[in-house]
Amino acid sequence: MTQLRALTRLAFDELALAAGGVGEVHKAIADRAFVGGGPPKLLHDGISGAVYAGVRGGAALAGLAATALVPERSVPPSPLAILNGLRGDALEPPLAIPMTLRASGEPMPRLAVFVHGLFETEHAWRYGGGPTYGERLEGFTPIWVRYNSGLHISENGRTLAAELEELVASWPVEVEQIALVGHSMGGLVARSACHVGGDWARHVTHVVSLGSPHTGAPLESAVHYAAAALGAVPETRPFSGFLRRRSAGIRDLRRGSLVDEDWRDRDPDALRAAACREVPLLDGATHCFVAATVTREARHPVARVIGDWLVLEASASHRAQETLHVGGTHHLALLNHPTVYEWLSRALRSA
């Protein structure tokens, strides 16, 4: 099945699930309205149950018909990346994105590996237009990583380590230096790959994180607690179920999880989760973390509350050996920002 047909089938499956959720809300409200039950409630439940069952069945049949009618086509990378970010741990081929590494330019002994964030692809590095960091860095061959950001960060870290091991072994010239540059979740994936290690890791001189939530992202924490609160009463329980379907990758952002031990054999919906394992920084590499705030000053009261809209400054710069604060900007701007490029260029040249 092609991507477009698989996506069409998934859309109608989700429509059927949504109808079921509306039915659950309706039933919960009716249970409170029909005090004492009796024939009126039995009649109501019978009619409403048949209606919602019909809608679910109709959506399923419509999905089968629509899937057969849509053309055999691929889905553009960006929408597919968003879908993977939302539900990537539940997807299968052809919708699940496999990790790929793509080199551009002449093979050189120094590699700059760029790892995008949640919902993104390697095209995100062109944010705002103009040349990317990789295209502007002199003396480096840029390596662009694409991956399923809905998987656990530790799973992507393990796969990235294996891919880099193979890349270094097959590189046309001997590799002398590797710089890992990750945006948001990508910075965590890069750190997780360094923790897995391998022969490739001895070449790593810099691990650069741009707006990465090393101690967690407040938005994911808010969604986690909202899901718990909505699950407390029947009328809102379907909304809780919807929020709890978010991907494993999104859930890992709650505390900046990097290893399997943080999620294996643990209840992902537990209100109070156990502390994450403290993962050491890679020996021999310089860890450079960039934090942004919407205000010019990092200590501004507004910055302390919303950071760059998604990540707080303290989380983005946690345990860094070198830090850069970019004020008056936002999370996505770090993908292609002149101040970040100048700082990144100087840092890599120093090696």
Describe the structure.
The structure is a single chain. This protein has 351 residues and is an alpha/beta fold. It folds into 2 domains: 3-75; 76-351, Alpha/Beta hydrolase fold, catalytic domain (Rossmann fold). It contains 12 helices and 7 strands. The chain has helices spanning 3-33, 39-69, 77-87, 133-136, 153-170, 185-196, 218-230, 237-243, 248-252, 301-306, 313-316, 338-349; strands spanning 100-103, 110-115, 141-146, 177-183, 204-210, 286-293, 322-327. The chain is globular, with a radius of gyration of 23 Å. It starts with a helix and ends with a helix.
Secondary-structure blueprint:
Layout lengths: L2 H31 L5 H31 L7 H11 L12 E4 L6 E6 L17 H4 L4 E6 L6 H18 L6 E7 L1 H12 L7 E7 L7 H13 L6 H7 L4 H5 L33 E8 L7 H6 L6 H4 L5 E6 L10 H12 L2
Parallel strand pairs: 2-3, 2-4, 4-5, 5-6, 6-7
Antiparallel strand pairs: 1-3
Helix pairs in contact: 1-2, 5-6, 7-8
Features:
7 strands; globular; alpha/beta; 351 residues; 2 domains; seven-stranded mixed sheet; Rossmann fold
Summarize the structure in short:
By secondary structure, the protein is α/β, with parallel strands linked by helices.
What percent of residues are in strands? 5-15%
**Number of strand segments:** 7
Total individual domains: 2
- Mean pLDDT over the residues: 94
What general form does the structure show? globular
CATH superfamily of the largest domain: Alpha/Beta hydrolase fold, catalytic domain
Which residues sit in consecutive blocks of at least 5 with pLDDT less than 50? none
The DSSP helix count reads 12
CATH architecture of the largest domain: 3-Layer(aba) Sandwich
Helix content: 40-55%
Distance between the termini: 48 Å
- What is the radius of gyration computed over CA atoms, rounded to a whole number of angstroms? 23 Å
Which CATH class of the largest domain?
Answer: Alpha Beta
**Main beta-sheet strand count, sense and barrel state:** 7 strands, mixed
**How would you spell out the order of helices and strands?**
HHHEEHEHEHEHHHEHHEH
Strands in their spatial order, largest beta sheet:
1-3-2-4-5-6-7
Q: What is the assembly state of the chains in this entry?
A: single chain
Helix/strand-derived category reads: alpha/beta
